Backbone:
């Protein structure tokens, strides 16, 4: 099926821009050093049904690095994260800062994202 360019632009503006070679960009707002955890998170956050917050979610609620360090230590003590993963999180926290894990999650974050707030 042949589409004229203008019709293609109207129906699929992003695809048309991509085909025209215009540069595209994606803003990276956080860094996850554990790929397996990152993959799980990417799939389930749309409706949060059955979603279980991970260490990054808890860190993103923190106001200070000190609070984040307490979260990491607590989850290590409970064996919810490994010592190695905790070490990597501390390293990221020290080198890149608290917001390298993503923007702060405010009160009612999940309700608002799910469309209830």
Residues:
């Amino acid at each position: 099926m042949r589409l004229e360019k203008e019709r293609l632009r109207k129906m699929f503006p992003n695809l048309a821009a991509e085909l025209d070679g215009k540069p595209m960009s994606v803003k990276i707002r956080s860094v996850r050093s554990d790929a397996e955890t990152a993959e799980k998170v990417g799939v389930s956050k749309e409706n949060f049904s059955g979603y279980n917050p991970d260490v990054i979610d808890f860190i993103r609620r923190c106001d200070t690095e000190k609070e984040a360090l307490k979260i990491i230590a607590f989850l290590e003590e409970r064996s919810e994260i490994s010592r190695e993963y905790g070490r990597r999180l501390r390293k990221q926290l020290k080198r890149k800062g608290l917001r390298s894990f993503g923007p702060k999650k405010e009160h009612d974050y999940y309700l608002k994202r799910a469309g209830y707030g």
